[in-house]
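tool_call: predict_structure(chain=1)
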Amino acid sequence: MFRRVVESETNGEVGVEVTWNIMDDGRPNTDLFELVESGHMFLCYFSSSYLGSRVPELNVLETPFLFDDLAMAHRALDGPLGEALAVAVRASTGFEALGFWDNGFRHLTNRLRPVHMPEDCRGMSVRLQPNVVHEELIRCWGAIPVAVELSHGIQLIRRLDVDAQENPLANTVAYGVDQVHGHVTMTGHLYGARGLFAHRPTWEAFPPDLQANVGKAARSAVEVQRKTAERMEADLRIELEASGVAFVDLTPEQHAAFVDVSAPAIARAHEGVPGELFDLARS
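tool_result:
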């Protein structure tokens, strides 16, 4: 969609070359940051959490239960919160944030039992990505965090060396976790955003009409990606239920219990992040 809009709006005078997966070239995905910031590529998408150490403001998105649903997240990221995060990215990096895609809400899956309340997690070992807030969250539920990088985590899950994990449904299926975990609880405890990060000097050098066209293309891509991601999660749930995976949808009271017990992790997420960003997210 991004390519289509750019080439259409410029009557074909500007072309867009797409690299579908940098790892196909034997490079780690994190090389995208260097390639874009150096200007060898113009644009990439990447989970915002990877820039949290350089842009602390982005860590607002690592707050448990920050958004109630996708509509709330989209309003915030397309409004004042997204604008504030773009300013912060611009101030600390060589990137220009052109928008935010969905990586979906993260949900808890496990191989042991249905989880309806935090106490159902007691004693479970849970693989998660290394992040101090995420680890604190799992401890708040009475579970045992096992924070390891992805490839090692997948091995632990498949060998049954850990009991549970947390991920969007798309990742759960992509990593084959659904083959060993028969229980999914739709906790929606963390929202994942993927930033569209462009090479800022190139962006700033564009004449106004081209900058407007590229901005329009980015917004069009955001709209399409979000709808596609939401539809994919719905379709994946149908497929998983058909394969025998059992889903738990939390009642309002059960959801509130998870939020309440997660208070220490939510407080930790506020450390080092300007308080006004949380106001923008929740307003």
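agent: The beta strands are 43-47, 95-110, 125-128, 144-147, 164-167, 183-199, 246-248. Proceeding to next step.
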